[in-house]
Amino acid sequence: MTDVIRPAFTELDLEAIGGLKGRVVVLSEGGTKMDKGARRVNRLMRGALARCVESEAFDKLKPGQSTTLSYPGGMDAKSVEVIKIAPKMTPEIARKVGGTIGKVLTGEEVTLLGGSERLLDQVALAATLRAYAFNAHKTGEAAEVKPASLTVMVNSTDAYAASVDGIVAVAEGVFLTRDLVNEPANILTTTEFADRAKALEELGVKVEVLEEADLEKLGMRALLGVGQGSESPSKVVVMQWNGGEAGTKPLALVGKGVVFDTGGISIKPAGGMEDMTMDMGGAGVVTGVMKLLASRKAKANVVGLIGLVENMPDGKAQRPGDIVTTMKGDKVEVINTDAEGRMVLCDVLWYAQERFEPVGIVDLATLTGACIIALGHENAGVFSNDDDFCKTFLKAAETEEEGAWRLPLGAGYDKALESTKADFKHVGGRPAGATTAAQFLQRFIKDGTPWIHLDIAGVADLKTATTLAPKGATGWGVRALNRMIADTYEG
Ligand code: BES
Ligand code: MN
Ligand code: ZN
Prior knowledge:
It is a single chain. By secondary structure, the protein is of the alpha/beta class. It folds into two domains: 8-157, Leucine Aminopeptidase, subunit E, domain 1 (3-Layer(aba) Sandwich), CATH 3.40.220; 168-488, Zn peptidases (Aminopeptidase, 3-Layer(aba) Sandwich), CATH 3.40.630.10. Helices cover 33% and strands 20% of the residues. It has 15 helices and 19 strands. It has helices spanning 36-44, 48-53, 56-60, 91-103, 120-130, 163-182, 190-198, 212-218, 221-227, 281-295, 341-356, 369-375, 387-399, 433-442, 478-489; strands spanning 8-11, 23-28, 66-70, 79-84, 109-115, 149-154, 206-210, 235-242, 251-261, 301-311, 323-325, 331-333, 360-365, 380-384, 404-406, 424-425, 451-455, 461-462, 472-473. It has an eight-stranded mixed β-sheet with strand order 7-8-10-9-13-17-14-15, sandwiched between helices. Helix 4 (91-103) packs across helix 5 (120-130), helix 5 (120-130) packs parallel to helix 6 and helix 6 packs antiparallel against helix 10 (281-295). The longest helix is centred in the middle third of the chain and has 20 residues, at 163-182. The site of zinc ion has 5 residues, from strand 9.
C-alpha cells in the first residue's frame, strides 16, 4: 500500500531553525505581525521574510496560497515557503494550507513552524492526504522517490500528542481506497480485491469471502448474471468490525465492486473505457472505511459488504432481454447489460438485511453517468428514505468538505421500471437516470430500514487534482462516513 507519512509534532526550537534541512514552512497573515518562529527566520534571512510578507504580491494571495524563497541566506534550508493564512484559522483554511504543503511533500524534510496557530492537526492531516502518490507501476527514478517527513513545530505539543495516531488512521483508510481505485483491472481482479480485503484481518476485522457456489446457493442470480462473462470469479466479501456493544445491530455499508465495466454485450464506446477500472469505487470506499474503523478501534458495530464482479462481453455473458431472479425473489428483465451496478447491489443489499438486520444501510456505487450530468464532479448524489439519517450524513460530509447533494426519490418514477414480461426491468431510460437507478435499489430495502444510496460516479476519480488529492482516485466518502459513525454510533 502507498505509505502514509506520519507527521511529528515537536516543541518549537528556535535554535534549531537555522540548521533545518529541506523546506521550512512559515504561516503569515501578511503585514508586520510575526510569531517567534517567523521572527527567527526573518532575522536569519536578514529581513527578507518581512519584505516578502509586507509586499503587495503577498497581500494579493488567498489563504492557503504561498510564495517560496529559495536557498535562503543565513539558513541551511533549501527553501522557505510562506503560506498565507487569515486572522482566524478555520477547518477550510487549515485544509488549504495542508494541501499546499502536501502537494510537494516528496523526498524531502519539511518543517512547519506552526507556533500557537490553531487546527495544526487538520493542517497535518491535509498535508498527509495531499502527499499521496500512486507509484506502484512506475519503474526507475519515479519509483525510487525517497519518503518525505513532516515535522510541525508548535509552542506546546500537549494538544497534539494524541492526534497523530488519528491522523495516520484516517490517511491509511483513504490511501487504501485510493490504491484500490487507481489499480488497473489486470492487477485488481475480483480475487486480488478479496485478498486485499482479507488482509484487514490483521487489524481485527472479521473477513469472509463468499464464492460463486455460495452465492448460487443464496440465490444471488442478479449479481452472478453480471459476472458470468468474466474469467474472474464473482465474490461477495463480508467485513465485520465489532467494536461496539455486543449484540447491538450493526450499521451496514454496501459497495459496488465492478473491477472493470466494459458494459458487457451492451458494450461501451472505446473512448474513455479505460476509466472503468474505477467502477469498484463504492467497494473501495467501504473497504477503506473498514480499515479506518479498525485502525482507530472505533466503538461501533459496522459491517461492510462488497459485491465483486467483472462485466465482460463473452459467449457466456448475459444478454439484453435476459430475465433473472434476484435473491429477494423478484424477476428482473435486463434491458442494458451496462446497467450492471444495480444488479450487483440489489442482491448484496438484500443479503445484508437478511443476515444482519442492520440499524441502517449506506450503499456506495459509481452507478450512473446521469448523476455526473446532474451534479458534475463537485457533489455525489445522495438518495434516502429517511430524512434524519440523511441529514446526519449530509452534515458529516459538509464538515469534511466532501460534496454531497440530495436528489429525489418518488413513487412517480416507478412507472419507468415497468416491464411487460417480468416483475420489473432494471433501467428507466434517460430522464432522471440517477433517480430511477436509486428507485430500483429501493425495491430491495425493507420497510423501516433507514437507507442512504450514494452515487459516487462523479467524485470517486478525478482528472484534476483537488486540495486533498492528486489527480486520480479521491477516496471521497471515507472521511464523511467515518465522521458520521463517530458522531452517531459511538455515543
Ligand atoms: N459504471 C457506469 C457508470 C459510470 C459512468 C461511472 C461514468 C463512472 C463514470 C455504470 O455501470 C453504467 O454504465 N451506467 C449506465 C446506465 C445506463 C445503461 C442505464 C450509464 O450511466 O450510462
Ligand atoms: Mn455499466
Ligand atoms: Zn458500472
